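dumping this here so i dont lose it
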């Protein structure tokens, strides 16, 4: 049975902290100059003493020490805690970040609501991989298949979907910018061929690769199904039929042109 994802697997290990002796002015400046920080754990020699947010600083004098405005009695998590349990704590308490401590109360990481969302997104992919693998095993009986997690170059991928939709592409770009990208699903049909160019077919993640390409991200995390010998793949035929050789061949269409969406003007024709 698959074990539940743990906090230690998804928490951020490198955490920015402030000292109880820092002034309100110093911490305010750090929040303004940072990217995405709206608060910090307050630590003395890695021992968590509290948490301070931008709201705590609003009405305080600039020279006031953080120890006077921080919240001292805060919730913390154990690294072995299930992410789903940590998610309940975050939801019910209304916090955005949950410090993670060891048995000595020393800070070893932090789990944000974004990390929780990412953990749930990534749980979906193994199910897709399992279904695809079982399908390939049935179609290509006798061919040995293995699975691995690897980073793939977008330039090496052959798409198997001829179009993506602009609105969903914007959504995938938003997720990527916040570290929420689900891994791709790729089939490696290189087999035993002695080549510097792998035969990699993108089975799932066409919107994500175009979003990554628009953000100048050259590589992405992927679940890869590896065939020990090259076979005549159905998705390869699809790629050939639509002249798809690289992700640049994928067309981006407006949502209003989706086959299941009409405009009032067309309905009245």
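and the seq i came up w/
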């Amino acid at each position: 049975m698959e074990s539940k994802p743990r906090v230690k697997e998804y928490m951020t290990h490198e955490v920015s902290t402030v000292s109880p002796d820092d002034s309100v002015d110093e911490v305010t400046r750090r929040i303004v100059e940072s990217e995405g920080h709206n608060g910090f754990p307050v630590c003395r020699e890695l021992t968590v003493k509290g948490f301070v947010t931008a709201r705590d600083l609003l009405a305080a004098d600039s020279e006031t020490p953080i120890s006077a405005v921080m919240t001292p009695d805060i919730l913390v998590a154990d690294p072995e805690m299930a992410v789903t349990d940590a998610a309940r704590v975050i939801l019910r308490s209304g916090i955005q970040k949950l410090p993670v401590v060891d048995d000595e109360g020393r800070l070893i990481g932090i789990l944000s609501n974004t990390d929780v969302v990412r953990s749930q997104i990534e749980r979906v992919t193994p199910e897709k991989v399992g279904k695809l693998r079982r399908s390939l095993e049935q179609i290509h009986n006798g061919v040995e298949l293995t699975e691995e997690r690897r980073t793939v170059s977008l330039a090496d991928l052959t798409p198997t979907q001829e179009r993506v939709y602009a609105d969903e592409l914007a959504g995938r770009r938003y997720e990527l910018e916040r570290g929420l990208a689900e891994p791709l699903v790729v089939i490696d049909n290189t087999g035993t061929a002695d080549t510097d160019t792998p035969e990699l077919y993108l089975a799932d993640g066409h919107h994500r690769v175009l979003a990554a390409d628009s953000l100048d991200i050259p590589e992405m995390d992927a679940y890869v199904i590896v065939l020990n010998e090259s076979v005549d793949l159905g998705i390869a035929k699809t790629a050939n039929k639509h002249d798809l050789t690289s992700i640049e061949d994928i067309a981006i269409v407006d949502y209003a042109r989706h086959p299941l969406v009409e405009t009032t003007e067309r309905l009245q024709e």
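The chain is about 35% helix and 20% strand.
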